[in-house]
Amino acid sequence: MSSDFSNKTEATKSKPKQKPNHPKRYIFRSMSVAHVDDEYDNNTPAGEPYHVDKLFPNGDIYMGQWAHTRPHGHGKCLWEDGCMYVGDWLAGKATGKGKFSWPSGATYEGQFNNNYMEGEGTYTGSHNDTYIGKWRRNTRHGKGVRTYDNGDFYDGGWKMGRPHGRGRYHWAATGHQYDGYWRQGAMSGAGTMAWANGTQYEGSWADGFPRGNGTFRWSDGSCYVGVWSEDPSEQSGTYYPSSSNTGGGFEWDPQEVYLVNLSDCRISPGEKIPIFPSEKAVNWDCEEKVYGARRATLRRLGNGGAHSLGSESSDSSDEGGGISTSTEREAENGGEQQLSLDVLRGYRRPRLKIKPAKRQGLTISRGHKNYELMLNLQLGIRHSVGRPAPATSLDFKAAAFDPRDKVWTKFPPLGSKHTPPHQSCEFKWKDYCPLVFRTLRKLFKVDPGDYMMSICGNDALRELSSPGKSGSFFYLTNDDKYMIKTMKKSEVKQVLKRMLPAYYNHVQAFENTLVTKFFGLHCVKMTGTAQKKVRFVIMGNLFCTEYAIHRRFDLKGSSHGRLTVRPECEIDSATTLKDLDLNFIFRSHKSWFQEFCRQVDRDCEFLEQERIMDYSLLVGIHFREVSRSGEPLIAETSLSRGNGDQTSEGVPPRLSTADLSLHFDSNRLASIKLGSNMPARAELTMRKNGGEAQLIGEPTGEYYDVILVFGIIDILQEYDIGKKLEHTIKSFQYDSTSISSVDPRQYSKRFRDFVFRIFRDDV
Fold it and tell me: Which residues contact 424 (CB under 8 A, 6 or more apart)?
């Protein structure tokens, strides 16, 4: 790219420098392109657009109008991976008419708003999947026509990317057609389905199937009128033959409509948009601050020191002793001389690098040392959950919580009257308090069939690579919904003898409790000489979410030993970080923050009453916008200007319910609850280098849009004689307030104080 690009840059500079004493600076001799911190070297007034050609350090290119540190007017942005936007810009964001193209050949041409496809627009996929119509926040929303890549056709209303309202869908392969109402991508409401063979159904629909009053007609004029349902016991109706049909009896099952007629009437998933333009947007403020601050810092050091950081050469004509281009490039590429203002002030700026999420655990296959144990566990769970049980009441007598309320079942390999034959060794299975845990699963809205399939389906469990600090082993189901933890005998006694009745009452009283959800407590006793007993509890996996977890933190509110000793390059999405690694303050909507505070108080009071300590708040963070290089993109800064919707304190306003509806479809909105898939803003914090450990860093005013998942875990540790002895010994060696092992009352107070400092109202 070279000389043509360089000549174009020189030609498009609007005015020459007017100050005679200002020294000339040459950034690159081989490619003279305007850099992010050079726009004020000319005399163009701030805010008045002028033409620039910019090459960014990551390889992105921008050519077009520029004003006040960002694109403004008409311009073209070409990303290093081949994506390109050509069109209107407003304060650094694609706004107005434009065209976005992907390397695959897909294109979108139409209206943009704040980097989102919004308004009238046409999307043409790489496999001829086209949509012409209304858009809202990157999703099809409003009236539109879509031709799918398989030839199917839909003309009608859309909502959050799915057919919604009145619309007509035509199946190209079969010739079938539906004309009627839709809801969230499924046929719902009044509508008519016409099959290619001449039959049709006219009536009510729900979730893609006939439900309610409706009429099924054959091509000869005969019809069936009645009430429709997928459940045969709820189906009723009357057959009316046509005048031409003089035959005798008529045999037809209305369930054929569900099993046969509708079997090839599936809605095409269509071609997915590779990546949204809003995810490709450059954070111009971030580029300008980081890139410009480093260069300015190096210049000051070069001018004020005894000698320049760079060496004199023919490429440098800065008479004030400035740095050479080679040193600038070394600093900007992360060399040893890369400095920033934050470092000079004594602060340690955290580096955020998001690596691709890894699937945790090793699949337990034949030959694994715990393969038979897994088979035994799955057989036992299937037996326990599938066993008929009387209707459960939410109120139990004390006997239901008795540790002696357990059921032993023997599983011989050849099977028995109550157990199936199997290929594992003979074992015994114990079910603790089965009635209580069956009711807990009902309280937690766990479907018995789904529960059994997750744990006992065809897919094997996965064993986490290393046991926890307690020595327990952890296993994950293939769908990540449930975690199985082996337990010590003392922990089982703690759950059964003391805690289970209070735990049951607590989760029954508070639906949004943050404490760990327990679904079952069991024991496997292997036969033979070893007579090995393995006790385990089944829990909900906190991080079973549609969002990739980029960072996870285990937070206790203490400082001793609460730093992850691991090189930066080894930290990934599966690394559990600790209190002194935390570099964020989380700001959430006022209503959620208030409910969060109330629930943390309730849960901590419950744990304190049960003499429990050493629990943690496990927090998972999903960054909603991440650059191609793996760095989370800053959404807002408290110093950003030119934005007329900021509060009086300069902090960007929080998301309203209306704003949330723009960011999330209806399914995702329904999944948002306390501790699960909660949208928030994470403010970056920095700690000072050296000195005493700083539990919470100083706010920087830089905000990231995030999704939070969190809950209180490890709630089975009682403040017993062992923990009391640990507290006494460590108090002689360290500050007693910094250690984890403290009295439950003190632990609860410290935990709450810490949590309420890192979670705040987004005012």
Answer: 372, 375, 376, 379, 411, 413
3-class DSSP state of 504: helix
Centroid of chain to Cα 252: 48
One-character DSSP codes across 348-378? EPPP--PPPP---SEE--TTSTTHHHHHHHH
**Beta carbons of 294 and 333 less than 8 angstroms apart:** no
Strand partners, 684: 584
Amino acid identity of 519? F
The residue among 472, 473, 448, 451 whose CA lies nearest residue 463 is 473
Tell me the pLDDT tens digit for each residue of 254-271.
Answer: 777 776 777 777 888 888
In this structure, the number of other CB atoms found within 10 A of the CB of residue 218 comes to: 16
On whether the CB atoms of residues 424 and 366 are closer than 8 A, the answer is no
How does pLDDT run across 415-469, given as a tens digit for each residue?
A: 888 888 888 888 898 888 888 899 999 999 998 888 988 898 878 888 886 555 6
CA 338, distance to chain mean position in Å, is 33
Q: What is the pLDDT of residue 43?
A: 40
Highest mean pLDDT among 18-32, 349-363, 496-510: 496-510
The rounded distance, in Å, linking the Cα atoms of 98 and 277 is 11
Could you give the C-alpha distances from 392 to 382, 384, 402, 434, 507, in angstroms and in order?
Answer: 19, 15, 17, 11, 16
Whole-angstrom distance, CA of residue 500 vs CA of residue 125:
56
Q: Which two tokens mark 105?
A: 């050949």
Helix-then-strand count for the chain, H and E: 16, 34
Distance CA 258, CA 230 (A): 7
